[in-house]
């Protein structure tokens, strides 16, 4: 079965086509600048030169049609015709409390996703455009939705409630949802497999450290607590996001700087974090380079970033009354040995003992970076959210096909 994975944004659409017989990626690419002048489609097939096509793509239905044209292109394509796509999986940022797992799309599911627009105004409407665009281009093909929040629906109320009037939860569903769930789910399963230990016997702290960053306490395979909150602003310090701060700073800044609420919101999301403290970049590579060249502000940004991860690891070890596995994933987590070292240096009291040579090894594979004597396994696990979306979609579409056959 071939599964097309779609991640639709408001002006972009990323895709990966999987052959689920061997979980290989047949092709991948993205459409950028949808609705703007000179939209760009970039298409990649392993072993071939990247193809770039500039054209006018005004909305998502045309974007999907262009992607399908490319996938079936005489020269650059990998499929004979579009009937060779048997299912489509969509990444959806917010599933609220309605979705605890991935599901196949029907009218009811679409209605629920629409109801969640308020909670994710930047993301969910764009995902919906992707779903509608696929429906228009591939009528009758089963589509699944995989939610960034679903994995965290296992959290107990003591983890997900804020200590504010509970009427706000009852009326407006103000609570912690958590994000990067697809990634935390995927890497924790990979870790258990790598260690040859049952997932439901492990206490894992998973650190997804990319442009956005979150830590999750995974107890017996289920999310027990996570650092992102009602939105992806809470928790760790990130590339451009502040992470945790005293909420009283918001009204205080509005008064002192004569800013609007929107301006402060934008400051906390887009002009804070590594970028703001270093004054150099939101990209950890550039911050580390500047630090090594002697920049004090880069060093401070790096120290704050590592310190906050360390605090969450400690907090989550306490939350689970122990830790068996500490794992790092995503852009920074997978690639920055110096960051991993700094985080782990202050955690020896927990039984975390890094092997410096293993930590320096670069590889695209899951690997152990702790010393043999370390009580806690420290791993680097490359994340692959698209593959998890493809797997869930494949499972749901195959089950539907089986049920349909039995019903005939
Ligand atoms: P992601 O959001 O997972 O795609 O991660 C993107 C981030 O990973 C970039 O902003 C970089 O800061 C970071 N990154 C990628 N490669 C490296 C590296 N070699 N060292 C440090 N950070 C890196």
UniProtKB/TrEMBL annotation:
Site residues, Transition state stabilizer: 180, 241
Any GO BP: acetyl-CoA biosynthetic process
CDD domains according to UniProt: ASKHA_NBD_AcK_PK (cd24010)
Matches recorded under InterPro entries: Ac/propionate_kinase, Aliphatic_acid_kin_short-chain, Aliphatic_acid_kinase_CS, ATPase_NBD
Binding annotation for ATP: 14, 208-212, 283-285, 331-335
Record-listed E.C. numbers: 2.7.2.1
Coiled coil: none
Annotated positions binding Mg(2+): 7, 385
GO molecular-function term, one example from the UniProt record: acetate kinase activity
Catalytic reaction equation(s): acetate + ATP = acetyl phosphate + ADP
Pathway of action: Metabolic intermediate biosynthesis; acetyl-CoA biosynthesis; acetyl-CoA from acetate: step 1/2
Entry keyword Nucleotide-binding: yes
Pfam family, one: Acetate_kinase
Subcellular localization, as worded in the UniProt entry: Cytoplasm
UniProt cofactor(s): Mg(2+); Mn(2+)
Lineage top rank: taxon: Bacteria
Cofactor: how bound: Mg(2+). Can also accept Mn(2+).
GO cellular component assignments: cytoplasm
Family membership noted in the UniProt record: Belongs to the acetokinase family.
HAMAP family per record: Acetate_kinase
PANTHER family: ACETATE KINASE, ACETATE KINASE-RELATED
Subunit structure: Homodimer.
UniProt name for this protein: Acetate kinase
Record gene name: ackA
